[in-house]
Amino acid sequence: MFLAIRELLFAKTRYILIGLIMVLTASLIFIISGLAQGLSADNASSIQELQADLLILTKDAEGKLTKSFIPMGEAQEIVDNQGDEHASTLAIRMMNATRNNSQQQLDIAMFATEPDSMLMPKITEGVSPTNQKQVVADTTLKQEGVKLGDKLTIGEASYIVSAFTSGQRYSHTPVVFIHNQGLDQVNAIAVQGDAHVEGSFDVMTKEDALQGIPSYSQEQASLNMMIIFLYVIAAFVLAVFFYVITLQKKGTVWGVKSIRC
Predict the structure, then answer these.
(1) Which whole number is the average pLDDT over 198-216?
(2) What is the C-alpha separation between 119 and 206, in angstroms, rounded?
(3) Rounded-to-5 percentages of helix, strand, coil across the chain
């Protein structure tokens, strides 16, 4: 211990530099990890926060929500067959919307479900919809100038923003929750508990469904690979540093051994 302290004091600049390198590397790992978490939430927080355990999709969709199409009548039968389990239909559409008949185009992800569905998010501002013409919008739409009471025109239909929610993003766009009345088909059935379904359907967890969101797995894989490489680089730098120190002290070590002999 005495010799180690003497060595640190004698070559303090060298050890300060290697310590600074490790601090900077750790900071970079922390920043990239935060970026990965942020992109994950911006891309899929609406799916991550769904109040459901399982999702029922068609087999030919290959795990991709937007490629699964279930006729509304058949979807309602599946919901009714769940027995005591809570189940709700879910339709997802990537749409453009305009605010108050303006020319401003807003990119949104439209989530359609039953008004009393377990999938409806927690309201942070405003009041819950009381009719099919009222919607709940993610709070990030405020950055585009959307306010409570504004009219959103989505396709040929118009809706009134009655409430805002938070943390509801899908494929890097804000989510708008609407009534599913009038839809001919849905993308999935969300179930709390065990799913009871037969035929050409797949049952998957929310975590598995995340991999079907466009660019989600690619983004996370790239950032995770960067983090792994940073760990490897940090270990390599430390190994080289102590290897060089060992080589520099080789003569001293042999001298001490010869004195002891």
Answers:
(1) 86
(2) 13
(3) 45, 25, 30
Helix then strand count (H, E) for the chain reads 6, 13
DSSP E strand boundaries for 66-104: 70-71, 86-99
Cα-only R_g, the chain: 28
**Residue 65 and residue 213 in contact, taking contact as beta carbons nearer than 8 Å:** yes
Q: Is the pLDDT of residue 8 over 70?
A: no
Structure tokens at 67: 């490629």
C-alpha 22/C-alpha 32 separation (Å) is 15
Confirm if 111 and 90 have CB atoms less than 8 A apart.
yes
CA 163 to chain centre: 23
Residue 111, pLDDT score: 94
The pLDDT-based confidence of 134 (bands split at 50, 70, 90) is very high
Query: Which pLDDT score, from 0 to 100, does residue 257 have?
Result: 62
Helix axes 2-10, 12-48, angle to 10 degrees: 90
The two structure tokens encoding residue 134:
């009222």
Q: How far apart are CA 170 and CA 127, in angstroms?
A: 23
> Are 83 and 212 in contact, with CB atoms under 8 Å apart?
no
Is the distance from CB of 71 to CB of 81 less than 8 angstroms? Answer: no
SS3 (DSSP) at 34: helix
Distance CA 138, CA 166 (A): 5
